[in-house]
Design goal:
6 helices, alpha/beta, two-stranded parallel sheet, 24% strand, flat, single chain
């Protein structure tokens, strides 16, 4: 056994009969105990379908993922007593009362359990639970003090719209993250615990935003609600606005002196969008826009811009007037127009281009500061001439003809003519000469077209 193994995962892909065969053939209880006790492997994971005849209670499993049917029934004493993380998927809808869940469980994820909608009693959930994610059907009142006092993360699904009044002790004082982004929740949030630092709200939420100074992260879809209350979140470090914005809300240094990350899903409308008033503390900026941009503030280190094609087909110079400040080190771009000389500042060390349809003149437009270049959705030929024109500072090149990261080809430059080609498919991993790279990429392109 390799001594450095940290975790082992067993996954059931077959029928119940094959599970029994594997379980018995491997002598699973003895194998798992050997891994846990003699080999000191702390994370033993099982993912599969439910079957009551597979003994699990005494197995040293720490994480289990079950795919359940409506007819399945988990009874007390079935789940491993060592269990820390449990995820249930499928159409399960039975109560967890009566000690069904192990006492040491810390994470319960029902996010993909489509029909679960059961009452939560005083002893339903383990007392040490730290993370609870509900699925899309749960929409029952939560009584005071039934959520464990150790709970830190609480996420609700699409149907949920029940009171969360903390004056009635519904939310525990340990809670740090409250997720309502996917829910139908539209009731007043009164007196969140001071420990809550992350809050996500959906587009259905139209109540006044509460003044909660301890928030560090706010994710919101209702822009007008946000625009009129920007002066009550002076400690915020991250903001995500998931909405089509016609203008930039009043996100300034005076309102958000500690803002580090800003993510705005979509800017719509006409005319240039001036970003010069954004907080000077900002370090990471993520934008999607169909409008020209100006005034990106100096100090941004990670910049992600997706220029969305306009319906009226108006063409503008997307990277004009030194748009990208020379403080940016990581640059992610989705462009409709070609990149020109000088568009990318010499501060950039990591450059990622998404869906770039033009032939890339790497010798002229890629600055020598770039160490890693990623081209996703790039359909032009990558041959030895292309590689020889790359700045010698580019040590890592990743190329993919589609948008799937798992089908990327990754090249590590070892010398002027030798690369190491590493992929998820180990059979295609190995050293490769610069004149053979084109054949490898072409072969991968053919394979992807066949998939």
């Amino acid at each position: 056994m390799i001594p450095s193994i940290d975790q082992v995962k067993f996954r059931d892909y077959g029928s119940i009969m094959s599970v029994h065969n594997v379980w018995n053939r491997l002598n699973m209880p003895e194998l798992l105990n050997e891994l846990a006790n003699s080999r000191s492997i702390s994370k033993l994971l099982y993912s599969g379908s439910f079957t009551v005849t597979l003994p699990m209670f005494d197995l040293p499993l720490t994480e289990v993922q079950l795919h359940l049917k409506i007819t399945d029934h988990i009874t007390p004493g079935y789940l491993p007593r060592s269990l820390i993380t449990l995820e249930i998927q499928g159409v399960y809808d039975r109560s967890f009362d009566g000690g069904v869940l192990p006492s040491g469980l810390k994470s319960l994820n029902l996010g993909q359990c489509e029909q679960w909608n059961q009452p939560i009693g005083p002893d339903t959930l383990p007392s040490q639970l730290e993370q609870l994610v509900f699925g899309p059907s749960f929409n029952l009142p939560i009584n005071p003090r039934v959520l464990p006092a150790t709970l830190m993360t609480l996420v609700f699904g699409s149907a949920f719209d029940q009171p969360l009044d903390t004056h009635q002790d519904i939310l525990p004082a340990t809670l740090t993250c409250l997720g309502l982004r996917e829910s139908a929740f539209n009731l007043p949030l009164v007196g969140l615990p001071p420990t809550v630092t992350e809050l996500t709200l959906s587009q259905t939420y139209t109540q006044p935003i509460i003044a909660h100074q301890s928030l560090l992260l706010l994710n919101i879809e209702c822009y007008p609600l946000f625009r009129s209350n920007v002066d009550i979140f002076t400690n915020l470090q991250e903001i995500e606005i998931v909405a089509d914005l016609p203008s930039l809300p009043a996100i300034t240094s005076s309102a958000f002196p500690n803002l580090v990350e800003l993510n705005i899903d979509q800017f719509i409308g006409d005319g240039p969008l001036d970003l010069s008033a954004l907080p000077t503390s900002l370090r990471r900026l993520y934008l999607q826009t169909e409008r020209p941009l100006t005034g990106i503030p100096h100090g941004i280190e990670m910049l992600f811009i997706c220029f969305v094609p306009r319906n009226d087909h108006i063409v503008y110079d997307e990277l004009s007037n030194n748009l990208v400040p020379d403080s940016v080190t990581s640059l992610y771009l989705t462009l409709n127009n070609p990149i020109n000389v000088g568009d990318i500042p010499s501060s950039v060390t990591r450059l990622q281009l998404e869906g770039y349809e033009h032939r890339l003149n790497v010798a002229e437009v890629i600055p020598k500061s770039v160490r890693k270049l990623l081209l996703r959705g790039y359909r032009h030929e990558i041959n030895s001439e292309f590689l020889r024109q790359l700045p010698e500072t580019v040590s890592r090149l990743s190329v993919g003809i589609n948008d799937y990261l798992d089908q990327m080809q990754h090249l590590l430059r070892l010398s002027d003519t030798l690369f190491f080609n590493y992929q998820q498919n180990l059979q295609s991993t190995g050293f490769i000469n610069i004149d053979r790279v084109h054949e490898s990429l072409a072969g991968n392109k053919l394979l992807n077209n066949l998939l």
